[in-house]
Design brief:
This protein is an all-alpha fold. 81% of the residues lie in helices and 0% in strands.
């Protein structure tokens, strides 16, 4: 029995329309509206900041009585005494500048050492097996445990603080760089071998481009840790040009709660700023390339 169904004009139109639409038509993403950006990007941190300030006031006035309120001064007093009083704020800024110089010098030393050690380890499994356990050990040792040795060998002034800064910020650079250098695709290595590429060519034209995202991730982590290392070294040794660590110790000993909290806030601002600067450098260097890969 034969099929007597004939295609109608509606079926024909549907078939023509389906054939006219390319199978690989890209999906167009509508632009994000201003209102949606406001609610998803701008408002959440503002609301969280308001909640933190509310909790701060609650602890200051409800959980602490007047005699113990020096433990956590309310935000408006910190603003008046720590930031709006130029005499106090200028002292904090000068201490922060001294810490910034130590952090940047220490970070520069860590970058040079970290990249060099990671490159050497990536080129030789023997060196990797020999050096990696000691890098992990150096990272695992509490800095307070070796601070007396650092002070005894290198002094308690700027050099000692630099050593502390380097020890704290070195490991992330080594680990991330080594991981990135070893993450190049095996097929690309085979292609370079096919063209008889030597080690320097393979390193600079294959491994470093493949490792760029991991390297910058390690630099961003190390940038924040360098600030912590500079503050910790200044706090431990307390010699040389007074940094924010010595300021924190002085304010804590004098029970100056407003200046102490202002110094802590400015220390956080310094760490976040350095982290964001390296993120900006990363976007300039590999942002578009890395986005295209994804």
């Amino acid at each position: 029995m034969t099929d007597t169904h004939r295609p109608t004009s509606t079926d024909t139109d549907d078939a023509v329309a389906a054939a006219a639409v390319p199978a690989s038509t890209p999906r167009v993403t509508p632009p994000r509206s201003t209102t949606r950006t406001l609610f998803t990007v701008v408002l959440p941190p503002i609301i969280m900041g308001i909640l933190i300030l509310g909790l701060w006031y609650f602890v200051s006035y409800q959980m602490l009585d007047e005699r113990r309120r020096f433990l956590l001064r309310p935000p408006h007093q910190v603003l008046d005494v720590g930031f709006l009083d130029w005499g106090n704020f200028s002292d904090i800024l000068w201490a922060l500048w001294a810490t910034t110089k130590v952090a940047m010098v220490g970070l520069s030393i860590s970058i040079v050492l970290g990249l060099t050690i990671a490159v050497v380890m990536s080129q030789s499994k023997l060196f990797e097996r020999a050096l990696y356990p000691y890098m992990v050990t150096l990272q695992a040792i509490p800095i307070l445990a070796i601070a007396p040795l650092i002070g005894f060998w290198f002094g308690t002034a700027t050099t000692g603080r630099l050593i502390v800064c380097v020890i704290i910020s070195l490991f992330p650079i080594i680990v991330n760089t080594l991981f990135g250098l070893q993450s190049a695709e095996r097929g690309m290595h085979d292609l370079f071998t096919l063209h008889h590429a030597n080690r320097p060519t393979r390193l600079f034209k294959l491994q470093f481009p493949a490792a760029s995202p991991a390297i910058f991730a390690g630099l961003r982590i190390a940038a924040g840790l360098s600030v912590i290392g500079a503050i910790v070294g200044d706090f431990i040794f307390g010699r040389g040009e007074a940094g924010i660590g010595q300021a924190l110790r002085k304010y804590a000993n004098n029970l100056d709660g407003e200046q102490l909290l202002a110094a802590v806030i400015m220390s956080s601002v310094l760490g976040v700023t350095v982290f964001l600067v390296f993120g900006w450098i990363q976007n300039l260097a590999i942002g578009k390339w890395h986005g295209d890969r994804s």
